[in-house]
Amino acid sequence: MRGGGTVRAPLGTVAGARSGDKGGNANIGVWVREDAAWPWLADLLTPERVHELLPETADLALTITHLPNLRAVNIVVEGLLGEGVAYNARFDPQAKGLAEWLRSRHVDIPTSLLPTEPQ
């Protein structure tokens, strides 16, 4: 049964994400499948909260764009990749794993948005 309140769980429990790069910037798209989850996602992914969830972005500028018709949020992290893909001192120079790192971070998810188990 789904009721009120929240459960602390990985963001990926209710959201999909994909990431990549453009030069030294990382780009993360995060989306939800249900209309009911869209307002929660849009409110959750503020610059302050993204800096908290991804501490490596704390000193970097973010551009956050809401795409309500897609139930998605796009996050650009400026300068995260330094010199970009050609720079090989980073473990993930193309930011391919950044979306999964964000999805693994624990957030308070309203229980009404959690998947229900088949009966």
Multimeric organization: single chain
- Beginning-to-end CA distance, first to last residue: 11 Å
Q: How confident overall, as mean pLDDT?
A: 87
Q: What Rg do the Cα atoms give?
A: 15 Å
Structural class comes to alpha+beta
The percentage helix is 10-25%
Helix and strand element order: EEEHHEEHE
Largest beta sheet: strand ordering = 2-3-5-4
Number of strands: 6
Describe the global form: globular
Which key phrases capture this entry?
single chain, 119 residues, alpha+beta, four-stranded antiparallel β-sheet, two-stranded antiparallel ribbon, 6 strands, 32% strand, globular
Give a short overview.
The chain has 119 residues and is α+β, with helices and mostly antiparallel strands. It has helices at residues 38-44, 47-53, 98-104, and strands at 6-10, 15-22, 25-32, 62-67, 72-77, 106-110. The longest helix is centred in the middle third of the chain and has 7 residues, at 38-44.
Tell me the layout of helices and strands.
Blueprint (H helix, E strand, L loop, with lengths): L5 E5 L4 E8 L2 E8 L5 H7 L2 H7 L8 E6 L4 E6 L20 H7 L1 E5 L9
Antiparallel strand pairs: 1-6, 2-3, 3-5, 4-5
Describe the structure.
The protein has 119 residues and is of the alpha+beta class. The chain has helices at residues 38-44, 47-53, 98-104, and strands at residues 6-10, 15-22, 25-32, 62-67, 72-77, 106-110. The radius of gyration is 15 Å and the shape is globular. The mean pLDDT is 87.
